[in-house]
């Protein structure tokens, strides 16, 4: 009973007019196929070869798709002309980088972007922290999903549509002005649009989820017993928040702020649509170099590189700061 | 040696190192066809590594594995005729019981009719008849274990490897499955290589037990050998409860070894070796081999003692007995009958000299 | 927490929900307004804007274009992302953390810089702006999300399942196809829908990498620059409905995956 005969298998060898029951399964046919065997025999010959095979596409992709564009951008930023024109060999230059320091119209948007991003990040944190706290600590575990889903739905809607929605909300004939007017608080509509206020409302609207989710998952992990223990030891609500909840949600704050900061430095459509001349951000400055004649590309590349480095350095410093003080509080 | 007709596997001087640590250290042994062999030892002793080397999941650092006369040391698992029952059963959750069992047959290129027949045969054999179209999450622990067994048996392996397959079952079921597993092994006539840290499981099922410790074999023998004639302190302590008696060899008397144990003369047996006179030795005496007598028995070797501690364990009472002078303590079991007849905690103990096993190390 | 703070918290939560939904509700409402003028008051209702956009070649063209890009992007991202996860998930090697960070990099690079660097890169690759360039850009951006989701799922696959398949005669490829892939299915569906969503919604990359044919977000942007109109509301509402459906679908399959029992 436990020994199998080989004859059944051999019978299945012929291809034509073989009854269904005498056929092999798809994978059986694959495994017993000679060509497949020699290909896999070659590919999987050694552990080393298997590893290289598995590593091939990821390594290629990371080099080609992730590092390639950034390296090209940095390279272009040192050229005096790009895209290449026939018969001219681009020369290396630092001119594009110097442009940044030469003109006020470049430096101001740069610092404005960083300042906006910091302010919007802090605003997002302050707005979403109680929301995340409420979700994690006051909503029953079984209904948390539903409450979270309610917040998620608006965030699936893309950047442009949501920006447009904010435009309708804040417009001179928008809902806010309508309500204020009907309450008799104002006579003429307040011009919210095309100011740093409308931009702020828009950016917070766009980024809130990236803050909310890390905060929620950090807060959700804090056992309620910690807070009860603190209360038992006589800590009031504020003390419990400051000494227990806040330090333990630090990780969520750190990653949420980093994400929101990085993302908000990169918005282009929202500032264009919601902001005005006095709120020009660096993304608009950079984009400008790509709309006009070709030889501005290198300057755009240099500025993009400056922006990328600044954003990453600030995010890195911030993370490091949070890490350090986090340790200090633990001791 | 490896073409010995009886030998199905020869682990030839095999060493497996992880970094600087030798998980298995120069292991050399042969497994005969049709044997139920158990590797027994504490976690980290190298038993699972040995099994994984047999399965092809680990490549030995040194040495060879000869399977049925062919060197399979460097062959991957899919190219050796060995199958494994995993600790967590590793049933494919997206396949039915029938598909799980058919998996190995399919990949061997069997025809659909063959696969159907064989699967049905195994389902019947393992009493899984009505479960063919169920998925693993609809089965109980014991049923899953049988499906894993059926799946591993399906491709007709030369060797069936079982990696602690009873660990996930509750204690009650485990005893029943032990009997079933032994029965299945007998009926199929397959060579089973079983790995466990549970000495009781090993004693119940195995034809042969290999006790491992720190990558080396401590003792290799039948369950009876290991239990009653342990050769090392490790084996004596690892399997069952035992008294370890340290003393000086005084000589031989009527084939028994005479040992001075804290001033008391005790008789024991050295299995397969002869300790030198005057040497310090350790001997093992199983608790159940200590005979307790409420009155002084006729056996002139009986020793008088006093119970210093009792632990009631239901069917019997476990007692600590102080015998002779200072520090000579003996653990033993007391029948409820005897327990009632002992007065003032005084009693006599004796044992068959064969049961006091003088250890080699 | 005292009763008062609890009430305050819930008020903040619901205020936040209102903040999230009101702009969208307004936007949808204005799409039914019987006037070219966006804003209050509303005097009449109409479905004309919808019938107009469903007859507009411009809108339908953009919709088809966006869908084609989203589908291609999703397919590519799934293959590459899964491959990266299969490589980075189970293997230990020196410098793995750096490789991992580099693999995730496109997900955190600010949008405008991602778009600009890609615009320069396709020039370098001598790839014209247009569909292929957008697909490349979206794929680069989406792969890290797929890789992360698949890696999370892969981490819960018991090693013994692969070993069991190998033990029963499967080579690496067959074991992957027959055991790993079915196990990854919920993650692949979730990540795939999420990719569709990201690609369908993306503006900045589509804007800089696109040619004359706009994607839906780019079309909305272009129309907005020449002023608001209920037609834009109608298009945006269609986009909103599609993304909400995709989003709920993605969410559902991810939840099922996290709940999913493995035997």
Automatic annotation (TrEMBL), chain A:
InterPro entries in the record: MetI-like, MetI-like_sf
Entry keyword annotation includes Transmembrane: yes
GO cellular component: plasma membrane
Localization: Cell membrane
Keyword Membrane: yes
Record's bilayer topology term: Multi-pass membrane protein
Secretion signal span: none
GO biological process: transmembrane transport
Record domain ABC transmembrane type-1: where: 110-318
UniProt keyword annotations, A-Z: Cell membrane, Membrane, Transmembrane, Transmembrane helix, Transport
Transmembrane spans: 26-44, 51-71, 114-135, 147-170, 190-213, 252-270, 301-321
Principal subcellular localisation of the protein: membrane
Stored CDD domains: TM_PBP2 (cd06261)
Family affiliation: Belongs to the binding-protein-dependent transport system permease family. CysTW subfamily.
Descriptive protein name: Spermidine/putrescine transport system, permease protein, putative
Annotated organism of origin: Mesorhizobium alhagi CCNWXJ12-2
UniProt lineage: Bacteria, Pseudomonadati, Pseudomonadota, Alphaproteobacteria, Hyphomicrobiales
TrEMBL record, chain B:
Record's protein name: ABC transporter ATP-binding protein
Keywords attached to this entry: ATP-binding, Nucleotide-binding, Transport
Entries under InterPro entries matching the protein: AAA+_ATPase, ABC_SmlMolc_Importer, ABC_transporter-like_ATP-bd, ABC_transporter-like_CS, Mo/tungstate-bd_C_term_dom, P-loop_NTPase, Transp-assoc_OB_typ2
Family: Belongs to the ABC transporter superfamily.
Gene3D superfamilies given in the database record: 2.40.50.100, P-loop containing nucleotide triphosphate hydrolases (3.40.50.300)
GO CC annotations on file: ATP-binding cassette (ABC) transporter complex
Biological processes per GO annotation: putrescine transport
Domain ABC transporter: 9-239
Native source organism of the sequence: Mesorhizobium alhagi CCNWXJ12-2
UniProtKB/TrEMBL annotation, chain C:
GO biological process, any: transmembrane transport
All residue ranges annotated as the ABC transmembrane type-1 domain in the record: 63-250
Record-given protein name: ABC transporter permease
Top-level taxon of origin: Bacteria
Source organism of this protein record: Mesorhizobium alhagi CCNWXJ12-2
Residue spans crossing the bilayer: 12-32, 62-85, 97-122, 134-156, 187-212, 232-250
Family designation: Belongs to the binding-protein-dependent transport system permease family. CysTW subfamily.
Cellular localisation: Cell membrane
Gene Ontology CC: plasma membrane
Main location: membrane
Topology in the lipid bilayer: Multi-pass membrane protein
Keywords: Cell membrane, Membrane, Transmembrane, Transmembrane helix, Transport
Pfam families registered for this protein in UniProt: BPD_transp_1
